[in-house]
Write a structure and sequence with these properties.
Its EC number is 4.2.1.17. GO terms for molecular function: enoyl-CoA hydratase activity. The protein is an alpha/beta fold. It folds into 2 domains: 195 residues, 2-enoyl-CoA Hydratase, Chain A, domain 1, CATH 3.90.226; 49 residues, Lyase 2-enoyl-coa Hydratase, Chain  A, domain 2 (Orthogonal Bundle), CATH 1.10.12. Helix content is 50%, strand content 17%. It has 11 helices and 10 strands. Strands 1-2-3-5-7-10 form a 6-stranded mixed beta sheet, with helices on both faces. Helix 3 runs parallel beside helix 4, helix 4 packs across helix 5 and helix 9 packs antiparallel against helix 10.
Length: 256
Amino acid sequence: MDGVTLRRDGHVAEIVLDRPEALNALSTAMARRLADVCAEVAADASARAVVLSAAGAKAFCVGADLKERNAMTDEEILAQRPVFRAAFGGVLNLPQPVVAAVHGYALGGGCEFALSADLIVADESAVFGLPEVSVGLVPGGGGTQLALRRLGPGKAADLVFTGRRLDAEEALAFGLADRKVPAGTAREEALGIAGAIAQNSPVAVRAAKRAMRLGAGVGLDAGLDLEENAWRTVAFSADRREGIAAFTEKRKPNWP
């Protein structure tokens, strides 16, 4: 439906970029649908981890649909902007940990979707890049800021200013990907990671993600205060009591 499919497997939600005939290029309708799906997943207390994957064999996502945009007026492009921001923000602001399963081309907005995730699994066919400056644009889905935070200023500048592409091996060495797997297995690996995350306390995992996200741009003292708040969120929770009881009784926890 409008290029995005939502699947569920137990406590794992899978958001699929599902417009393979256009290499999963982001259209206005697809962006609206993605924002709606992310809002649905964010509000779903039973979803403990999220996988962001893509349909088709050639691409994760090649960014904005330039064919659609080429036919738009400046006013229409400006009106599209908040729709796109809502789509990218929807992925970035998911309270659950997000694992991106990347195969094929992840260019422009596709690379930005991957950068919006907490973990990036790349298969051997993956190609990453932020080529916006080569067509007179600036990354507009969070690319400049997310690359800066993930890679540091030098590597972010290398990626953004040159517009060059990184294969899976270089992306792993660069810090853009967290795991490299054989071609065709990124989704399987990502689902496995998400499944492992989903076995842990959802209260603790969400609190940890929030502390890490908010702490990325602050000093150490402020970051430790964020960690203290996260600890206080979970220390007196039913999840903590169940977790300790399960450990003592040598059984799997049944998170309340």
